[in-house]
Protein backbone atom coordinates (compact mmCIF):
# COMPACT_ATOMS: atom_id res chain seq x y z
CA UNK A 1 0.00 0.00 0.00
CA UNK A 2 2.93 2.34 0.58
CA UNK A 3 4.15 1.69 -2.96
CA UNK A 4 0.63 2.32 -4.19
CA UNK A 5 0.60 5.68 -2.40
CA UNK A 6 3.95 6.74 -3.82
CA UNK A 7 2.99 5.67 -7.35
CA UNK A 8 -0.37 7.45 -7.24
CA UNK A 9 1.31 10.64 -6.00
CA UNK A 10 3.94 10.39 -8.75
CA UNK A 11 1.19 10.02 -11.39
CA UNK A 12 -0.62 13.02 -9.92
CA UNK A 13 2.52 15.13 -10.27
CA UNK A 14 3.06 13.90 -13.83
CA UNK A 15 -0.54 14.67 -14.72
CA UNK A 16 -0.26 18.17 -13.28
CA UNK A 17 2.97 18.79 -15.17
CA UNK A 18 1.39 17.80 -18.50
CA UNK A 19 -1.83 19.72 -17.88
CA UNK A 20 0.07 22.83 -16.75
CA UNK A 21 1.38 23.34 -20.30
CA UNK A 22 -2.19 24.18 -21.34
CA UNK A 23 -3.41 26.35 -18.46
CA UNK A 24 -4.86 28.99 -20.76
CA UNK A 25 -6.08 26.66 -23.50
CA UNK A 26 -7.95 24.14 -21.36
CA UNK A 27 -8.84 25.93 -18.13
CA UNK A 28 -9.35 29.64 -18.79
CA UNK A 29 -11.98 31.78 -20.46
CA UNK A 30 -9.44 32.61 -23.16
CA UNK A 31 -9.23 28.95 -24.14
CA UNK A 32 -11.37 26.31 -25.82
CA UNK A 33 -13.93 25.93 -23.04
CA UNK A 34 -14.94 29.22 -21.36
CA UNK A 35 -16.84 28.93 -18.11
CA UNK A 36 -20.18 30.00 -19.57
CA UNK A 37 -19.91 27.20 -22.16
CA UNK A 38 -18.95 24.68 -19.48
CA UNK A 39 -21.97 25.56 -17.36
CA UNK A 40 -24.32 25.57 -20.33
CA UNK A 41 -23.30 22.30 -21.97
CA UNK A 42 -21.08 20.18 -19.70
CA UNK A 43 -22.16 20.85 -16.15
CA UNK A 44 -24.01 18.63 -13.73
CA UNK A 45 -25.69 20.47 -10.83
CA UNK A 46 -24.27 17.96 -8.34
CA UNK A 47 -20.67 18.52 -9.39
CA UNK A 48 -18.22 20.94 -7.82
CA UNK A 49 -15.07 22.59 -9.09
CA UNK A 50 -12.78 25.07 -7.41
CA UNK A 51 -11.18 25.56 -10.81
CA UNK A 52 -14.44 26.97 -12.14
CA UNK A 53 -14.33 29.82 -9.62
CA UNK A 54 -12.39 31.96 -12.09
CA UNK A 55 -11.67 32.10 -15.80
CA UNK A 56 -8.16 33.51 -15.28
CA UNK A 57 -5.24 31.23 -16.04
CA UNK A 58 -3.34 32.82 -13.15
CA UNK A 59 -5.93 31.44 -10.69
CA UNK A 60 -5.57 28.04 -12.32
CA UNK A 61 -1.80 28.28 -11.85
CA UNK A 62 -2.25 28.88 -8.12
CA UNK A 63 -4.56 25.86 -7.80
CA UNK A 64 -2.10 23.75 -9.78
CA UNK A 65 0.69 24.82 -7.46
CA UNK A 66 -1.33 23.90 -4.36
CA UNK A 67 -2.19 20.52 -5.89
CA UNK A 68 1.49 19.87 -6.63
CA UNK A 69 2.54 20.70 -3.06
CA UNK A 70 -0.13 18.41 -1.63
CA UNK A 71 0.86 15.63 -4.06
CA UNK A 72 4.46 15.90 -2.84
CA UNK A 73 3.17 15.59 0.74
CA UNK A 74 1.28 12.46 -0.31
CA UNK A 75 4.41 11.12 -1.97
CA UNK A 76 6.40 11.59 1.23
CA UNK A 77 3.58 10.39 3.47
CA UNK A 78 3.36 13.70 5.33
CA UNK A 79 -0.03 14.03 7.03
CA UNK A 80 -1.02 11.26 4.65
CA UNK A 81 -4.76 11.11 5.21
CA UNK A 82 -5.17 14.87 4.91
CA UNK A 83 -2.95 14.96 1.81
CA UNK A 84 -5.04 12.17 0.28
CA UNK A 85 -8.31 13.99 0.92
CA UNK A 86 -7.05 17.33 -0.43
CA UNK A 87 -5.48 15.66 -3.48
CA UNK A 88 -8.78 13.93 -4.22
CA UNK A 89 -10.77 17.18 -3.89
CA UNK A 90 -8.38 19.06 -6.18
CA UNK A 91 -8.30 16.23 -8.72
CA UNK A 92 -12.10 16.05 -8.89
CA UNK A 93 -12.22 19.82 -9.19
CA UNK A 94 -9.69 19.78 -12.02
CA UNK A 95 -11.41 16.99 -13.94
CA UNK A 96 -14.78 18.71 -13.61
CA UNK A 97 -13.36 21.93 -15.09
CA UNK A 98 -12.86 20.39 -18.54
CA UNK A 99 -14.52 17.01 -19.14
CA UNK A 100 -13.78 17.25 -22.89
CA UNK A 101 -10.18 16.11 -22.30
CA UNK A 102 -10.85 13.29 -19.83
CA UNK A 103 -10.22 9.61 -20.51
CA UNK A 104 -10.75 6.30 -18.70
CA UNK A 105 -7.51 6.51 -16.74
CA UNK A 106 -8.78 9.66 -15.03
CA UNK A 107 -11.65 7.67 -13.53
CA UNK A 108 -9.24 5.10 -12.14
CA UNK A 109 -6.86 7.70 -10.69
CA UNK A 110 -9.80 9.40 -8.99
CA UNK A 111 -11.00 6.10 -7.49
CA UNK A 112 -7.54 5.15 -6.24
CA UNK A 113 -7.42 8.36 -4.24
CA UNK A 114 -10.97 7.83 -3.00
CA UNK A 115 -10.31 4.32 -1.66
CA UNK A 116 -6.83 5.38 -0.51
CA UNK A 117 -8.40 7.75 2.01
CA UNK A 118 -9.70 4.69 3.89
CA UNK A 119 -6.45 2.71 3.58
CA UNK A 120 -3.44 2.95 5.93
CA UNK A 121 -1.11 3.58 3.00
CA UNK A 122 0.90 6.04 5.04
CA UNK A 123 1.65 3.59 7.86
CA UNK A 124 5.12 2.65 6.55
CA UNK A 125 7.68 4.26 4.22
CA UNK A 126 6.34 7.68 5.13
CA UNK A 127 7.13 10.81 7.10
CA UNK A 128 4.23 10.01 9.41
CA UNK A 129 5.71 6.59 10.23
CA UNK A 130 8.78 8.22 11.83
CA UNK A 131 6.65 9.32 14.78
CA UNK A 132 5.00 5.95 15.32
CA UNK A 133 6.35 2.59 16.46
CA UNK A 134 7.11 -0.04 13.86
CA UNK A 135 3.94 -2.08 13.20
CA UNK A 136 3.97 -5.50 14.78
CA UNK A 137 1.86 -6.84 11.90
CA UNK A 138 2.30 -5.83 8.28
CA UNK A 139 -0.85 -7.48 6.94
CA UNK A 140 -4.08 -5.53 6.94
CA UNK A 141 -7.69 -6.39 6.22
CA UNK A 142 -10.71 -4.08 6.11
CA UNK A 143 -13.65 -3.16 3.94
CA UNK A 144 -11.36 -0.66 2.19
CA UNK A 145 -8.90 -3.38 1.12
CA UNK A 146 -11.81 -5.39 -0.25
CA UNK A 147 -13.08 -2.31 -2.09
CA UNK A 148 -9.64 -1.68 -3.58
CA UNK A 149 -9.30 -5.25 -4.88
CA UNK A 150 -12.87 -5.30 -6.20
CA UNK A 151 -12.31 -1.95 -7.94
CA UNK A 152 -9.27 -3.32 -9.78
CA UNK A 153 -11.21 -6.40 -10.83
CA UNK A 154 -14.24 -4.37 -11.92
CA UNK A 155 -12.09 -2.27 -14.28
CA UNK A 156 -11.12 -5.34 -16.30
CA UNK A 157 -14.38 -7.25 -15.98
CA UNK A 158 -16.46 -4.33 -17.20
CA UNK A 159 -14.21 -3.43 -20.09
CA UNK A 160 -14.35 -7.07 -21.23
CA UNK A 161 -18.12 -7.41 -20.82
CA UNK A 162 -18.68 -4.16 -22.71
CA UNK A 163 -16.63 -5.48 -25.63
CA UNK A 164 -19.62 -7.12 -27.27
CA UNK A 165 -18.74 -6.42 -30.90
CA UNK A 166 -17.87 -9.22 -33.29
CA UNK A 167 -14.36 -7.78 -33.66
CA UNK A 168 -13.69 -8.90 -30.10
CA UNK A 169 -15.83 -12.01 -29.67
CA UNK A 170 -15.68 -13.89 -32.99
CA UNK A 171 -13.66 -12.16 -35.72
CA UNK A 172 -10.56 -11.26 -33.71
CA UNK A 173 -9.99 -8.07 -35.71
CA UNK A 174 -10.26 -5.51 -32.89
CA UNK A 175 -6.53 -4.95 -32.56
CA UNK A 176 -6.20 -4.67 -36.34
CA UNK A 177 -8.75 -1.85 -36.36
CA UNK A 178 -7.19 -0.23 -33.28
CA UNK A 179 -3.76 -0.12 -34.94
CA UNK A 180 -5.41 1.20 -38.12
CA UNK A 181 -6.19 4.39 -36.18
CA UNK A 182 -3.28 6.63 -37.14
CA UNK A 183 -4.16 9.06 -34.35
CA UNK A 184 -3.04 6.54 -31.70
CA UNK A 185 -0.53 4.39 -33.58
CA UNK A 186 2.85 4.14 -31.85
CA UNK A 187 6.11 2.76 -33.32
CA UNK A 188 5.61 -0.58 -31.57
CA UNK A 189 2.18 -0.85 -33.17
CA UNK A 190 3.70 -0.28 -36.63
CA UNK A 191 5.99 -3.27 -36.09
CA UNK A 192 3.22 -5.78 -35.42
CA UNK A 193 0.53 -4.23 -37.65
CA UNK A 194 1.51 -6.17 -40.83
CA UNK A 195 0.88 -9.57 -39.16
CA UNK A 196 -2.88 -10.32 -39.12
CA UNK A 197 -2.62 -13.68 -37.38
CA UNK A 198 -0.56 -12.17 -34.58
CA UNK A 199 -3.13 -9.37 -34.22
CA UNK A 200 -5.93 -11.93 -34.12
CA UNK A 201 -4.16 -13.88 -31.37
CA UNK A 202 -3.48 -10.70 -29.34
CA UNK A 203 -7.11 -9.59 -29.74
CA UNK A 204 -8.49 -12.79 -28.22
CA UNK A 205 -5.70 -12.84 -25.61
CA UNK A 206 -6.67 -9.31 -24.52
CA UNK A 207 -10.37 -10.11 -24.41
CA UNK A 208 -10.05 -13.30 -22.33
CA UNK A 209 -7.29 -11.86 -20.15
CA UNK A 210 -9.53 -8.97 -19.08
CA UNK A 211 -12.47 -11.31 -18.64
CA UNK A 212 -10.95 -14.11 -16.58
CA UNK A 213 -7.63 -13.08 -15.01
CA UNK A 214 -9.23 -10.88 -12.27
CA UNK A 215 -10.79 -14.03 -10.77
CA UNK A 216 -7.36 -15.03 -9.42
CA UNK A 217 -7.53 -12.06 -7.02
CA UNK A 218 -10.27 -13.88 -5.07
CA UNK A 219 -8.79 -17.38 -4.90
CA UNK A 220 -8.31 -18.34 -1.21
CA UNK A 221 -5.24 -20.54 -1.79
CA UNK A 222 -1.77 -19.67 -3.08
CA UNK A 223 -2.64 -16.02 -2.67
CA UNK A 224 0.89 -14.67 -2.94
CA UNK A 225 1.58 -16.47 -6.21
CA UNK A 226 -1.74 -15.52 -7.79
CA UNK A 227 -1.15 -11.90 -6.84
CA UNK A 228 2.35 -11.98 -8.32
CA UNK A 229 0.95 -13.52 -11.48
CA UNK A 230 -1.72 -10.82 -11.76
CA UNK A 231 0.70 -7.94 -11.18
CA UNK A 232 3.32 -9.38 -13.55
CA UNK A 233 0.84 -10.02 -16.35
CA UNK A 234 -0.76 -6.59 -15.97
CA UNK A 235 2.62 -4.88 -16.05
CA UNK A 236 3.46 -6.64 -19.29
CA UNK A 237 -0.03 -5.97 -20.67
CA UNK A 238 0.00 -2.21 -20.06
CA UNK A 239 3.62 -1.73 -21.09
CA UNK A 240 2.69 -3.49 -24.31
CA UNK A 241 -0.25 -1.10 -24.77
CA UNK A 242 2.00 1.92 -24.20
CA UNK A 243 4.41 0.73 -26.90
CA UNK A 244 1.70 0.19 -29.50
CA UNK A 245 -1.03 2.77 -28.77
CA UNK A 246 -0.87 6.45 -27.77
CA UNK A 247 -2.90 6.36 -24.54
CA UNK A 248 -1.32 9.15 -22.49
CA UNK A 249 -1.14 8.43 -18.78
CA UNK A 250 -3.62 5.56 -19.03
CA UNK A 251 -0.94 2.88 -18.86
CA UNK A 252 0.95 4.56 -15.99
CA UNK A 253 -2.22 4.86 -13.93
CA UNK A 254 -2.97 1.18 -14.47
CA UNK A 255 0.59 0.19 -13.57
CA UNK A 256 0.35 2.20 -10.36
CA UNK A 257 -3.06 0.74 -9.51
CA UNK A 258 -1.84 -2.85 -9.12
CA UNK A 259 1.16 -2.13 -6.88
CA UNK A 260 -1.00 -2.44 -3.77
CA UNK A 261 -1.55 -6.10 -4.67
CA UNK A 262 2.10 -7.05 -4.28
CA UNK A 263 2.41 -9.80 -1.63
CA UNK A 264 4.91 -9.73 1.27
CA UNK A 265 7.36 -11.96 -0.60
CA UNK A 266 7.78 -9.26 -3.25
CA UNK A 267 8.18 -6.50 -0.68
CA UNK A 268 10.76 -8.55 1.26
CA UNK A 269 12.73 -8.97 -1.97
CA UNK A 270 12.60 -5.23 -2.66
CA UNK A 271 13.59 -4.31 0.90
CA UNK A 272 16.67 -6.56 0.83
CA UNK A 273 17.91 -4.70 -2.24
CA UNK A 274 16.71 -1.14 -1.73
CA UNK A 275 16.54 -0.43 1.99
CA UNK A 276 20.18 -1.32 2.82
CA UNK A 277 21.34 1.00 0.04
CA UNK A 278 19.15 3.79 1.44
CA UNK A 279 20.55 3.22 4.93
CA UNK A 280 24.11 3.51 3.62
CA UNK A 281 23.29 6.87 2.04
CA UNK A 282 21.64 8.19 5.19
CA UNK A 283 24.89 9.10 7.10
CA UNK A 284 26.24 11.04 4.09
CA UNK A 285 22.96 12.95 3.72
CA UNK A 286 22.87 13.69 7.46
CA UNK A 287 26.44 15.02 7.36
CA UNK A 288 25.57 17.40 4.53
CA UNK A 289 22.44 18.64 6.31
CA UNK A 290 24.09 19.11 9.74
CA UNK A 291 25.43 22.66 9.08
CA UNK A 292 22.05 23.81 7.81
CA UNK A 293 20.27 22.30 10.80
CA UNK A 294 22.66 24.12 13.15
CA UNK A 295 22.07 27.40 11.34
CA UNK A 296 18.30 26.96 11.50
CA UNK A 297 18.54 26.14 15.20
CA UNK A 298 20.33 29.45 15.76
CA UNK A 299 17.53 31.34 14.04
CA UNK A 300 14.78 29.71 16.04
CA UNK A 301 13.55 31.31 19.24
CA UNK A 302 13.00 28.95 22.14
CA UNK A 303 9.30 28.53 22.60
CA UNK A 304 7.79 26.11 25.05
CA UNK A 305 4.16 25.28 25.43
CA UNK A 306 2.07 22.41 26.57
CA UNK A 307 -1.39 21.35 25.51
CA UNK A 308 -3.28 19.04 27.74
CA UNK A 309 -6.63 17.47 27.13
CA UNK A 310 -8.84 15.40 29.31
CA UNK A 311 -10.75 14.11 26.31
CA UNK A 312 -10.14 10.42 25.76
CA UNK A 313 -11.78 8.14 23.28
CA UNK A 314 -12.81 4.89 24.89
CA UNK A 315 -12.18 1.54 23.27
CA UNK A 316 -15.91 1.13 22.73
CA UNK A 317 -16.16 4.48 20.94
CA UNK A 318 -13.18 3.61 18.72
CA UNK A 319 -14.85 0.34 17.81
CA UNK A 320 -18.09 2.17 17.01
CA UNK A 321 -16.29 4.67 14.76
CA UNK A 322 -14.45 1.84 13.03
CA UNK A 323 -17.73 0.02 12.43
CA UNK A 324 -19.31 3.16 10.99
CA UNK A 325 -16.35 3.60 8.65
CA UNK A 326 -16.51 -0.03 7.53
CA UNK A 327 -20.24 0.24 6.93
CA UNK A 328 -19.78 3.40 4.90
CA UNK A 329 -17.12 1.78 2.70
CA UNK A 330 -19.27 -1.31 2.14
CA UNK A 331 -22.24 0.86 1.18
CA UNK A 332 -20.18 2.88 -1.30
CA UNK A 333 -18.68 -0.30 -2.76
CA UNK A 334 -22.14 -1.74 -3.39
CA UNK A 335 -23.14 1.55 -5.03
CA UNK A 336 -20.04 1.49 -7.26
CA UNK A 337 -20.68 -2.10 -8.33
CA UNK A 338 -24.29 -1.25 -9.14
CA UNK A 339 -23.16 1.75 -11.18
CA UNK A 340 -20.80 -0.46 -13.20
CA UNK A 341 -23.47 -3.06 -13.84
CA UNK A 342 -25.76 -0.39 -15.24
CA UNK A 343 -24.45 -0.67 -18.81
CA UNK A 344 -24.24 -4.46 -18.75
CA UNK A 345 -27.46 -5.82 -17.21
CA UNK A 346 -30.98 -5.41 -18.52
CA UNK A 347 -33.18 -2.40 -17.86
CA UNK A 348 -34.79 -4.02 -14.84
CA UNK A 349 -31.64 -3.52 -12.76
CA UNK A 350 -30.63 -0.13 -14.16
CA UNK A 351 -29.80 2.54 -11.59
CA UNK A 352 -32.47 5.21 -11.75
CA UNK A 353 -31.45 8.80 -12.33
CA UNK A 354 -32.57 10.07 -8.86
CA UNK A 355 -30.02 7.69 -7.31
CA UNK A 356 -27.09 8.97 -9.37
CA UNK A 357 -26.57 12.23 -7.50
CA UNK A 358 -24.07 10.63 -5.10
CA UNK A 359 -21.93 9.36 -7.97
CA UNK A 360 -21.84 12.79 -9.56
CA UNK A 361 -21.21 14.59 -6.28
CA UNK A 362 -18.19 12.61 -5.10
CA UNK A 363 -17.26 11.44 -8.61
CA UNK A 364 -17.40 7.71 -7.99
CA UNK A 365 -19.16 7.50 -11.35
CA UNK A 366 -17.10 5.44 -13.78
CA UNK A 367 -17.20 3.81 -17.19
CA UNK A 368 -14.68 1.32 -18.54
CA UNK A 369 -15.70 1.07 -22.18
CA UNK A 370 -12.21 1.11 -23.71
CA UNK A 371 -12.57 0.25 -27.41
CA UNK A 372 -16.08 -1.03 -26.62
CA UNK A 373 -18.41 -2.35 -27.84
CA UNK A 374 -16.20 -2.23 -30.94
CA UNK A 375 -13.24 -0.24 -32.20
CA UNK A 376 -13.88 2.95 -34.17
CA UNK A 377 -13.50 2.54 -37.91
CA UNK A 378 -13.49 6.28 -38.60
CA UNK A 379 -9.97 7.63 -38.74
CA UNK A 380 -8.27 10.66 -40.22
CA UNK A 381 -6.27 13.77 -39.47
CA UNK A 382 -6.84 17.47 -38.92
CA UNK A 383 -5.87 20.28 -41.27
CA UNK A 384 -6.10 23.84 -39.96
CA UNK A 385 -6.57 25.61 -43.29
CA UNK A 386 -5.69 29.26 -42.70
CA UNK A 387 -6.13 31.84 -45.46
CA UNK A 388 -3.77 34.81 -45.22
CA UNK A 389 -4.74 38.34 -46.19
CA UNK A 390 -2.72 37.97 -49.41
CA UNK A 391 -4.56 34.76 -50.39
CA UNK A 392 -2.04 32.08 -49.37
CA UNK A 393 -3.17 28.89 -47.59
CA UNK A 394 -1.23 27.67 -44.54
CA UNK A 395 -1.71 24.67 -42.27
CA UNK A 396 -1.56 25.85 -38.65
CA UNK A 397 -1.45 22.22 -37.56
CA UNK A 398 2.00 22.06 -39.17
CA UNK A 399 3.26 25.36 -37.79
CA UNK A 400 2.16 27.46 -40.74
CA UNK A 401 3.68 25.40 -43.54
CA UNK A 402 2.04 25.60 -47.00
CA UNK A 403 -1.23 23.69 -47.12
CA UNK A 404 -1.18 20.12 -48.36
CA UNK A 405 -3.76 17.37 -48.24
CA UNK A 406 -1.17 14.62 -48.16
CA UNK A 407 -1.39 12.32 -45.19
CA UNK A 408 1.29 13.08 -42.55
CA UNK A 409 3.93 10.48 -41.92
CA UNK A 410 2.81 10.35 -38.28
CA UNK A 411 -0.66 11.63 -37.45
CA UNK A 412 -0.05 11.05 -33.75
CA UNK A 413 2.74 13.63 -33.69
CA UNK A 414 0.31 16.36 -34.68
CA UNK A 415 -1.01 16.29 -31.10
CA UNK A 416 0.86 18.12 -28.36
CA UNK A 417 -0.24 15.54 -25.80
CA UNK A 418 -3.00 13.01 -25.18
CA UNK A 419 -5.29 15.70 -23.72
CA UNK A 420 -5.35 17.44 -27.10
CA UNK A 421 -5.87 14.11 -28.87
CA UNK A 422 -8.90 13.42 -26.67
CA UNK A 423 -10.20 16.94 -27.29
CA UNK A 424 -9.90 16.44 -31.04
CA UNK A 425 -11.79 13.15 -30.74
CA UNK A 426 -14.68 14.87 -28.95
CA UNK A 427 -14.51 17.72 -31.47
CA UNK A 428 -15.74 15.35 -34.18
CA UNK A 429 -19.04 14.43 -32.54
CA UNK A 430 -22.08 16.28 -33.83
CA UNK A 431 -23.37 16.51 -30.25
CA UNK A 432 -20.31 18.62 -29.43
CA UNK A 433 -20.74 21.07 -32.32
CA UNK A 434 -21.14 23.90 -29.79
CA UNK A 435 -17.43 23.66 -28.90
CA UNK A 436 -16.12 24.11 -32.45
CA UNK A 437 -16.15 27.93 -32.79
CA UNK A 438 -14.26 28.40 -29.53
CA UNK A 439 -11.39 26.23 -30.73
CA UNK A 440 -11.35 27.98 -34.10
CA UNK A 441 -11.19 31.45 -32.54
CA UNK A 442 -8.59 30.31 -30.02
CA UNK A 443 -6.34 29.15 -32.87
CA UNK A 444 -6.70 32.50 -34.63
CA UNK A 445 -5.77 34.41 -31.49
CA UNK A 446 -2.67 32.43 -30.56
CA UNK A 447 -1.46 32.57 -34.17
CA UNK A 448 -1.84 36.35 -34.21
CA UNK A 449 0.13 36.63 -30.95
CA UNK A 450 3.15 34.81 -32.41
CA UNK A 451 5.95 37.19 -33.51
CA UNK A 452 6.33 37.41 -37.26
CA UNK A 453 3.19 35.45 -38.06
CA UNK A 454 1.39 36.15 -41.33
CA UNK A 455 -1.91 38.03 -40.86
CA UNK A 456 -4.92 35.76 -41.45
CA UNK A 457 -8.29 36.44 -42.99
CA UNK A 458 -10.08 33.11 -42.39
CA UNK A 459 -9.56 29.70 -40.78
CA UNK A 460 -11.25 26.39 -41.54
CA UNK A 461 -10.93 23.44 -39.18
CA UNK A 462 -10.85 20.56 -41.66
CA UNK A 463 -10.99 16.84 -40.94
CA UNK A 464 -9.69 14.44 -43.57
CA UNK A 465 -11.90 11.44 -42.88
CA UNK A 466 -10.55 8.00 -43.71
CA UNK A 467 -12.51 4.85 -42.85
CA UNK A 468 -10.65 1.64 -42.03
CA UNK A 469 -11.75 -1.38 -44.03
CA UNK A 470 -10.89 -5.09 -43.68
CA UNK A 471 -7.71 -6.53 -45.16
CA UNK A 472 -5.57 -3.42 -44.78
CA UNK A 473 -7.73 -1.24 -46.99
CA UNK A 474 -9.12 2.25 -46.40
CA UNK A 475 -11.55 4.53 -48.12
CA UNK A 476 -10.32 7.55 -50.04
CA UNK A 477 -9.93 10.47 -47.58
CA UNK A 478 -12.77 12.97 -47.74
CA UNK A 479 -12.54 16.62 -46.73
CA UNK A 480 -14.98 17.70 -44.02
CA UNK A 481 -15.05 21.32 -42.84
CA UNK A 482 -16.05 21.14 -39.17
CA UNK A 483 -15.88 24.86 -38.48
CA UNK A 484 -14.90 28.13 -40.09
CA UNK A 485 -14.24 31.53 -38.56
CA UNK A 486 -13.11 34.93 -39.81
CA UNK A 487 -10.29 36.85 -38.22
CA UNK A 488 -12.45 39.97 -38.23
CA UNK A 489 -15.15 38.26 -36.13
CA UNK A 490 -12.75 36.77 -33.62
UniProtKB/TrEMBL annotation:
<dbReference type="InterPro" id="IPR052964">
    <property type="entry name" value="Sporulation_signal_mat"/>
</dbReference>
<feature type="transmembrane region" description="Helical">
    <location>
        <begin position="57"/>
        <end position="78"/>
    </location>
</feature>
<keyword id="KW-0812">Transmembrane</keyword>
<dbReference type="InterPro" id="IPR011020">
    <property type="entry name" value="HTTM-like"/>
</dbReference>
<feature type="transmembrane region" description="Helical">
    <location>
        <begin position="138"/>
        <end position="162"/>
    </location>
</feature>
<feature type="domain" description="HTTM-like">
    <location>
        <begin position="1"/>
        <end position="266"/>
    </location>
</feature>
<feature type="transmembrane region" description="Helical">
    <location>
        <begin position="228"/>
        <end position="253"/>
    </location>
</feature>
<feature type="transmembrane region" description="Helical">
    <location>
        <begin position="199"/>
        <end position="221"/>
    </location>
</feature>
<protein>
    <submittedName>
        <fullName>HTTM domain-containing protein</fullName>
    </submittedName>
</protein>
<keyword id="KW-0472">Membrane</keyword>
<dbReference type="GO" id="GO:0012505">
    <property type="term" value="C:endomembrane system"/>
</dbReference>
<keyword id="KW-1133">Transmembrane helix</keyword>
